Structure formats: C-alpha cells, structure tokens
Amino acid sequence: MFLCLTVTYNPNHNTLIFFFWGKCLALNFKTVALYTFRATESDELSFNKGDMLRITNMEDDPNWYTAELHNRKGFVPKNYINLRPHAWFAGRISRGVAENRLRHRECGAFLVRESESAPGEFSMSVSYGDHVQHFKVLQDRCSQYYVWDEAFSSLNELVEFYHSNSIAKERTVFLRDPEQFRPHHAHALFDFNPHHPSQLRFVRGDVIELVDCSDSVRWRGRCHGRVGYFPPEYVQPIYQYQ
C-alpha cells in the first residue's frame, strides 16, 4: 500500500493541514524542534529545542516519526516538533489549474503537483514567460528523484538544485518562487535574544515582517519598529494563497 502525507499551511486558522496520499519520503520534510528531547531507548533520537530535523517516515506509529539529525536517525515524538510547509507544493491539482496559476508569471515561476497520469508520482510545472512547461519527476531504483541526469534523495534537493541550474535544455530557466508564494510575515516559534547589534530581538508569538528571505542561514525582518537578522528556524512563515 502506498501511503503518504503532504502538508500545507492555512493562514486563516494558523494551522497545518495534512493530506495522506503517498509516501512521506517523497518530500523529506524539515521540522523545527519545539522542545528538547532526551532519548530513553536505543532507537530514539535526542535533539535540542530549535534543532532542524528531517522527517523520513510518518507511517509506523501515530505518536512517533522517524527523523534524521547530524547523520543520526531514530524515533522522535511528533508533539515535540513543528512541520515547516513548502509553499511550492500544490498537492492534487490538475495540469490546467497549474497553467492558470503560472500564466503571465515571471519566467521560472513554478510549482510541484501530484501527477494526474501516474498517482503517487509528481510533475513540475514551470513558467517560461510565454507559456507553461510541464516536467515529469521520475524515480530510479534507489528512490532518487530526477528530471534530467542529476538525481536527488528528496524533492527539496531537486527544487533547490534547479534554482541555480537551468531546468530547461533549450534555454536558460532557473526556478523562482512566484511572488504570491513568498512569505511576507512569520510567527515567532521561540524567543530570540540577539548576540550582535545587527540581529533582531523577538519573543514567541510575535509577528515578524519578512524583509529578505534569500539566505538559507539568516533572514532579515522587522518587529517592534526594529530591523535585523535572525535564524529562520525560529519562525513559522505565513503563506498567502490565491
């Protein structure tokens, strides 16, 4: 049986919505640890509050996920972590709906969706500016994902690769997150106390205006009238969907 879970964020209710349909290994979700956890069994994984974990399986136990951190693997309690959604994952939408969303968008705007012709597989729809091109995301015998020659262990890595390498062969097209998918605000998950004057202080529950999210290591935002840098794992982006 081919079971999975995908996640999107509902900004109206500040909740994560779960859709079971395929194998969770497909996306390899990144999560933020809400609390510190110390393993008491050999098959459990210890982590600290604020750590970024990669979830590799959600199917075996309703209360535990399997995760990876610093090349270590083990079970983690699901109520200790917070799943970070991927704005580019559109879920189960048709080819036509994908084209309508991307039509007239800048070249490189894209989304990943469930394949209409092959349930359990994925397609990537990319705006070429003058039209929308669709790519089938394939898997090899080792469960690696690929569009052309390069293979990746997750869709995350595939998408990241084509942000700086052309997805097209006949022209140069780099993936770009459509403007409506870019988060403009985020909820603070934890208190952040700066270690440098250029950093931004905030407390759990604050809403932060996101000024620059182009760096994967540090983001720039505005909160309580101040602008500064902070680690992205301390916040939950709020995505606005059409």
From TrEMBL:
The keyword Lipoprotein applies. Signal peptide: none annotated. SMART domains: SH2, SH3. Pfam families: SH2 (PF00017), SH3_1 (PF00018), SH3_2 (PF07653). Keywords: Lipoprotein, SH2 domain, SH3 domain. It comes from the Eukaryota. This is GRB2 related adaptor protein a. It comes from Poecilia mexicana. The lineage of its organism: Eukaryota, Metazoa, Chordata, Craniata, Vertebrata.
